[in-house]
Amino acid sequence: FKQKTAYEIVDCDWSSDVCSSDLGARGLIDLAPHRGGIVARISLDQLSDMLDAECEMEGLCAALASQRMSAVEKGTLMECHRQAQQLTKERDETRYLDINQQFHDLICDGAHNVTLATMTRELRNRLAAFRQSQSEAQERRLTLSHDEHTRIVDAIQASDPEAAHEAMRRHNARLSSGILRLLRAGSQNGG
Question: What b/e string do you get for 139-169 counting C-beta neighbours within 10 Å, with b at 16 or more?
């Protein structure tokens, strides 16, 4: 599932009902029968809770993936990571974000737990709009993420669930704290 900008959603040929139900399912709008929808309000405390949950859920996916991924799945993860490295060098943020989604999906799938993978993806999708608000410079953000991904891949390749969980948790926690810091600064400045 590729994330769409508001412009792409408006410009697409989907009906507004489909767009509304998709956004409603992701918790981004509150739907009222026969009245349409209004943008859902998410407090900083709620957002913080969701980001914490995502850290732990995706950390658990990484831990399970380190124990359950086949050699072929680990090879696919390595190849995805190599592609991301090249895109980091090229500073191609758009293609990097696509590969980043694939990287995280491979780890969710590698956990071999459909319920956990589905819940983790749903939460990631709900939080995607907030992740796009990161304030770090593009080059630094891509490099940091890639370095963190290297630690995750190394732990999964080593079949080390504790290290995989911790590496993924730290990766998401850094991103989460950046998002919350940016939003708190915006709210203090009247934004």
Answer: eebbebbbebbebbbebbbeebbebbbbbbb
For each successive 10 residues of the chain (191 residues), what is the average pLDDT?
40 44 52 61 88 96 98 98 96 91 98 98 89 62 93 98 98 88 75 55
d(CA 51, CA 19): 24
Quote the tokens at residue 171.
């990766």
* DSSP-assigned letter for residue 4: -
The rounded distance, in Å, linking the Cα atoms of 151 and 166 is: 9
Q: What is the pLDDT of residue 36?
A: 62
pLDDT at 134: 61
Phi, psi torsion values for 71, nearest 5 degrees:
-60, -35
Packing angle of the helix pair 93-110, 138-157 (nearest 10 deg): 20
Asked if 79 and 106 touch (Cβ cutoff 8 Å), the reply is no
Distance CA(171)–CA(71), nearest Å, equals 24
**Residue keyed to tokens 């993860």:** 77
The beta strand positions in the chain, using DSSP E, are: 29-32, 36-39
Distance CA 93, CA 90 (A): 9
HEC string for 140-181: HHHHHHHHHHHHHHHHHHCCCHHHHHHHHHHHHHHHHHHHHH
Q: What's the CA gap between 103 and 109, in Å, rounded? A: 10
Q: Any idea which residue has 């980043």 for tokens?
A: 100
